[in-house]
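Exercise: predict the fold of this chain.
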Amino acid sequence: MRAIHVHATGGPEVLQLVDITPPEPGPGQVRVHVAAIGLNFIDTYHRTGLYKLPLPFTPGMEFAGTIDALGAGVTGWTVGDRVATASGSGGYAEYALAPVERLVAVPAEVALNQAAAVMLQGMTAHYLVTSTYPLKSGETCLVHAAAGGVGLLLVQMAKAIGARVIGTVSTEAKAALARGAGADEVIFYTSEPFPQRVRELTDGRGVDVVYDSVGATTWEGSLDSLRPRGMMVTFGNASGPVPPVSPLVLSSKGSLFLTRPTLAHYIATSEELAWRAGDIFAWIGSGKLNVRIDRSYPLADAAAAHRALEGRETTGKVLILP
């Protein structure tokens, strides 16, 4: 099969297309004939070595397809079942492995490319608004990168709850997408001081919660946008990791709460995984949640896909197709 290998961490050029033998599923695993792979910033963190994996490796945790082979002890699944996961391994390939406890069935009304587009980003948006900071109707949230893959889903989910959404974007085209998803206010955070604008929009109070996937460049401004006892949720490093934090900063800015969540801890049980994926698939099937697939790249162009994501050229989801 064709797959992408990383032999040394670095820039997008380290993503090399190779021909290798398809992996054999071990106990408790299935092999998936991959239909679509979801591109995520965590893939770039693995590629650069920010999040370390043993070398060499094939990146890719999020993919959808059909079961091709069952490992020992696997029950409840059959060859040909349509499935998706956000916790697989070796996804940048024609065949990849996934543990059955991290697998979900894809209903007939959801296309496999849609499933690949929402497993990681969709469930991330879900846990952010339902669990990390459970948004309530009438509350106000600040969503950075509101036209990004998580951002567009997060805006829609927050609006469905009845929250007021202030989104930040970098271009007028992205502003249109954020407004189309339901954002009440849009701030161009690359050309105006967004904390000052947030204060103006909230009559000086600040927002109840900031959902920040950007990281280093928005960190201080995000803290300055919160109301007293508000929550700072930093869940990504698109502009680089957040610097070390003194707890006294949180005190001086209003006894703020700070958390750095990750999806794995919010789908730690099969019941929680089924709840989050089930909600998302149901919303897609009913038309309540719109999934924007911005562009797709063939497997051989995985490096170009990474460059586009890191260059902030994309809106919505990027897929890689084997």
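Check your answer against the key: The longest strand covers residues 29-38.
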